[in-house]
Amino acid sequence: VQAVLLLLGGRDAPAGMPKVEQRFDQSIKSMGDITRHPNLSQRIASLVRYREKRKDRCFEKKIRYTVRKEVAER
C-alpha cells in the first residue's frame, strides 16, 4: 500500500503507517513492468477513483422517502 502511495505522490498516507525506505521505482524498475503485473495498474486506477469519490461524499442527513418527510413534519 505504501509503495502505491509513493507512486501517487505520497499523499493521503495515514499518520500511523510506517514509512517504507525503499522507493517504489526501485521495487518496480520501470512502468513497462506493469504489463507483468496487470492487477497493479487496475489497483492504481481503483485507488484514484476511490479518492476522487471520497472528496464528493456528503454526510448530511437526507430524507429519501416523502412518507418519512411527512411523518417528520407532523
Automatic annotation (TrEMBL):
Chief location of this protein within or outside the cell: nucleus
One of the protein's GO biological processes: regulation of DNA-templated transcription
GO CC, alphabetical: nucleus
PROSITE patterns: CCT (PS51017)
Source species taxonomy: Eukaryota, Viridiplantae, Streptophyta, Embryophyta, Tracheophyta
InterPro entries referenced in this protein's UniProt entry, alphabetically: CCT_domain, TIFY-like
Subcellular localization: Nucleus
Pfam families, alphabetized: CCT
Keywords carried by this UniProt record: Nucleus, Transcription, Transcription regulation
Residues passing through the membrane, by range: none
Domain CCT: 43-74
PANTHER family membership: GATA TRANSCRIPTION FACTOR 19-LIKE ISOFORM X1, GATA TRANSCRIPTION FACTOR 28
Record bears the keyword Transcription: yes
Superkingdom in the source lineage: Eukaryota
Protein's name according to its UniProt entry: GATA transcription factor 24-like
